[in-house]
Amino acid sequence: MTRRVYQGLFLITLVICTLLFVQEVKGSVTQLFPHVDKVAHFGIFFVLAFIMDKAFRIPFFVQVILLLLYGGAIEWMQDMLPYRQASFYDFLADAAGAASYFVIHYLWQKKRAKA
Q: What parts of the sequence cross the membrane (predicted)?
């Protein structure tokens, strides 16, 4: 896929994720297993980091900072909603998801360079 396609995909994913983060969470979703929301935050930010990395030619640390700013903005936005609440641990899950992608990507690139 081209960078332009990844940029469009990134924008679409960002809009969908933002809409999901402002939705009211029903009790049945949170009963799947403890901390399902942390797993969701981790996975969403892992995917966002992947798409962002493919979409833009900017240094990884800038991508991490932008994703952390987005994660912080999401938590702040959730704190403003009467049916949601901000969570520092959700923010940590966001950071861990993004960081995990970049660590795996770095190790993959390093392995490919040796081969």
A: 43-70, 91-108
